[in-house]
Amino acid sequence: MKITTFNRSFFLIYLGLIISISGCKITLVPSYDAQIKEQIESTSKEIDRFYLTMMDKTTNSEGGRSYEQFREGYINIEVELLSLLKKNRVRPLNTHSTRIGEITLELWRKYKQEHKEDNAIPDGLIKLNMLAMSDLFYAMLIAEKGKELAENPPAN
After folding, report:
1. Sign of the C-alpha dihedral, residues 57, 134, 69, 124?
2. Using a CB cutoff of 8 Å and minimum separation of 24, what contacts does 102-107 make?
3. What confidence tens digit (pLDDT) does each residue in 51-72 have?
């Protein structure tokens, strides 16, 4: 079989196309949402306020930190966490932020249940709960920042 210039050119173009396509990687990133970022920040502040108030204004003595004293705060924050989770679930390509939201809600419910069962909460546990929640909200903010940077990369 005789290879013509046309066949050779076609083969080289085809080979180059295959190599360039196989070397490409497409990463799909969900879109940035400034309102969700604001809600993440405000919910994080609400949780900080909740725990700092609990720690600074109450003690475990005489039922000052009974679950009932903070039940409404737990409910209000859970409503915010559910709202964030729902907003993240409906955003396309948003599995990472959705998973962070699920973990945050699960942990919040666990902390709430522990407080309810013990009907008290020591300062050390408040600090640990607050730190864990802070870390999760930091992860949420980093995820949103990544989406913002993907849409608007910094100029070099």
Report:
1. negative
2. 103/136, 104/133, 104/136, 104/137, 104/140, 105/78, 105/81, 107/132, 107/133, 107/136
3. 999 999 999 988 899 999 999 9
pLDDT in tens, 120-145: 999 999 999 999 999 999 999 999 99
Please, what's the b/e burial string for 102-123 (b: 16 or more CB within 10 A of its CB; e: otherwise)? eebbeebeebbeebeeeeebee
Domain ranges of the chain: 34-151
State the Cα–Cα distance between residues 88 and 91, nearest whole angstrom: 5
**Global model pTM greater than 0.85:** no
Mapped to the 3 state alphabet, what secondary structure does 33-68 carry? CHHHHHHHHHHHHHHHHHHHHHHHHCCCHHHCCCHH
